Amino acid sequence: MTTPQKIDAERLRSRLLAPAGPYAAIDVVSRTGSTNADLRVRAAEGASDRTVLLAEEQTAGVGRRGRTWASPAGSGVYLSVLLRPAEVPPASLGSLAMVAGLALTDVAAELGVDAVLKWPNDMLAGPDRAKCAGVLAEAVSTGDSAVVCGIGLNVLPLREPVSPGPGGQPATSLADQGARTTDRTEVAASLLAALHERELAWRRARGDLEMAGLLDTYRERCATLGREVRLEITGGRSRYCRVVDIHPTGALVVDEDGFWSTVFAADVVHLRPAS
């Protein structure tokens, strides 16, 4: 088996580093526990807005609710971006994960991969709608508005089995879905460029997805909209409902036996249509 080429930090910097590009710093490390954890430390130490950290391998990569994110060496793009969007109120920072989700689907479309979004932060790809990427956005207590946005994207086939997500969702990769390229440097560059474009609109709109012109696009790409779902709430409770809309804040609007409400945090399991 051939050894995957490492991500080329100099190629990324030549295309994306200030002043020619939008990012203040771009570093690639061979191995770390979690790029999000590392950038939270750097944020506390005063790292600049739009600082990027990528890792060839994460040994303690995490997703939402502390779940493990498999990050084997040379298989994916595992990156985190420190953002200091002073224009965005803290209460609106939560919609950043959805902005990153749009960037992921932008890249998937560019690579010829059929992909959709599962609220709030997963990219599903292929006819079986298997999980190809996830996002974890974490606010940082630094005295100003700061958030670390982590993205894990499976580029090459995973060599080891991965435990299915909520609802038994299997894993897949861009390669499995016939992507036009699996050059991880190229994929990382495209993802960072797409994230910048989407995040800039979000930032200028003070975190309002509708004002940023992102909400309708998210609705179009969100496979959760219109579905019957099971919501798994913290504490082990479950709710069954139908998703009727995405609120401008990024929350789900659900219909539960004729009663509409908004849901800001939950694991969503797509229920199979009745046969």
Automatic annotation (TrEMBL):
One of its GO terms (molecular function) is biotin--[biotin carboxyl-carrier protein] ligase activity. The keyword Ligase applies. InterPro entries: aa-tRNA-synth_II/BPL/LPL (IPR045864), Biotin_CoA_COase_ligase (IPR004408), BPL_LPL_catalytic (IPR004143). The keyword Transferase does not apply. It comes from the Bacteria. Pfam families: BPL_LplA_LipB. Keywords: Ligase. One of its GO terms (cellular component) is cytoplasm. Residues 10-203 form the BPL/LPL catalytic domain. Residues 161-180 are annotated as: Disordered. Its EC number is 6.3.4.15. CDD domains: BPL. This is Biotin.
